[in-house]
Specification:
Keywords: Cell outer membrane, Membrane, Signal. The chain is mainly beta. The chain has helices at 3-17, 189-196, 200-206, 246-249; strands spanning 52-62, 70-81, 85-88, 91-98, 102-111, 130-141, 144-153, 161-168, 171-173, 176-187, 216-228, 233-243, 258-269. The chain has a twelve-stranded antiparallel β-barrel.
Length: 270
C-alpha cells in the first residue's frame, strides 16, 4: 500500500470516528459498463495516476423517529481509488480481487443511524452512529452492477449485522453523470433492538411501552447526480430513501414508514 493511500485511509477513519451526526453516501462508484452511455473510470490502467477528489457536503436527514426528526450537517468527503485501496465517501477498504467483471472488497462503513431522545421519548437512551466492518462482492454486466454486502458493528454499539443486495448503474451524458441504486437491506434482531427496541429498564423509566423487534428486510433506493463545471470542479446532489420494515415501524419510537436524506455539495478533483 502506498504512503499516499495509507494517509487517505487514516484521514477517512479519523473523520468518520469524530462525526456526531449522519452522513449518507452520495456517489456510487467503481465499475464500468459496455454501453456507450454508461461509463466509469474504475478500471483505468494500473500505471495511470489514481484520482483524488475532495469535497464538502451539506445534507438533511428526515428521520422516521418521533420527536426531533430533522438533522442537517456540513461535512468533508474524500474519493480515492488506486485499484488496491479505495475511499468512497463513507466507505473505505481494499480490493481482494478486481477486474472488468468482478469486484471483491474488504471494507469499513460509516453507519449514520442515530437517535437523540426528545419530546415524549426524552427519557429513552440515545442511539449512536457506528462503524461497520465487512465485505462486498459486485458482478458487473452490460446492464449494470449487482452487489451483495455483509457488515457487522465493530464498535459494539448495536452488536448487530446487516446485509444488502442491490442494483447499481452509472450513466454519463456530456457533463452530467447519474448514479441510481436500489435494493433490499436485511437487519438482524440485535441491530433492530438497538435502533428501534425499548428495553424494560427504559420502559419503567419513561412510561414508553417495551418493545423487542426481530430481524427484518426493507427496501431502499438512492439517486446521485453530478455535473462537471470544469476540469477540476464539479457539483452534485443526491437523494436517499429508506423504508422502515414492519418490525421497525411497530416500535413506539417510530412515527412514519420512511426516512429521506437529500444532500448537496461541491467536489475538487486533483
Amino acid at each position: 500500500m502506498s504512503s499516499t493511500g495509507l494517509y487517505i485511509l487514516c484521514l477517512f477513519i479519523y473523520v468518520k470516528i469524530n462525526m456526531l451526526n449522519s452522513f449518507k453516501k452520495m456517489i456510487l462508484a467503481s465499475f464500468v459498463l459496455t454501453s456507450p452511455y454508461i461509463y466509469s473510470s474504475a478500471y483505468a490502467e494500473d500505471n495511470i495516476t489514481p484520482d483524488l477528489t475532495i469535497g464538502l457536503n451539506y445534507s438533511l436527514n428526515w428521520q422516521a423517529y418521533k420527536g426531533r426528526s430533522i438533522y442537517h450537517n456540513v461535512l468533508p468527503v474524500v474519493f480515492y481509488d488506486n485499484n488496491t485501496l479505495y475511499v468512497e465517501g463513507d466507505d473505505a477498504g481494499v480490493y481482494l480481487f478486481k477486474n472488468e467483471h468482478h469486484q471483491f472488497r474488504l471494507n469499513i462503513l460509516y453507519d449514520s443511524n442515530s437517535f437523540d431522545p426528545s419530546g415524549a421519548l426524552y427519557l429513552l437512551d440515545q442511539r449512536r452512529w457506528s462503524i461497520l466492518a465487512g465485505a462486498s462482492y459486485m458482478r458487473i454486466t452490460p446492464i449494470g452492477g449487482f452487489k451483495v454486502q455483509l457488515a457487522t458493528d465493530m464498535l459494539s454499539r448495536s452488536q448487530g449485522t446487516i446485509a444488502r443486495a442491490s442494483y447499481l448503474a452509472a450513466v454519463e451524458q456530456g457533463k452530467w453523470s447519474f448514479y441510481p441504486e436500489f435494493g433490499l437491506q436485511w437487519n438482524n434482531a440485535k441491530y433492530n433492538r438497538y435502533y428501534f427496541g425499548v428495553s424494560e429498564t427504559e420502559a419503567k423509566r419513561s412510561g414508553v411501552l417495551a418493545y423487542e423487534p426481530r430481524q427484518s428486510i426493507a427496501p431502499f433506493a438512492s439517486i446521485a447526480v453530478n455535473y462537471d463545471v470544469s476540469k477540476h470542479w464539479s457539483v452534485f446532489s443526491s437523494l436517499e430513501f429508506n423504508y422502515l420494515s414492519h418490525e421497525q415501524f411497530k416500535s413506539p419510537m417510530a412515527k412514519k414508514h420512511s426516512e429521506i436524506t437529500p444532500s448537496f455539495g461541491v467536489n475538487f478533483n486533483f
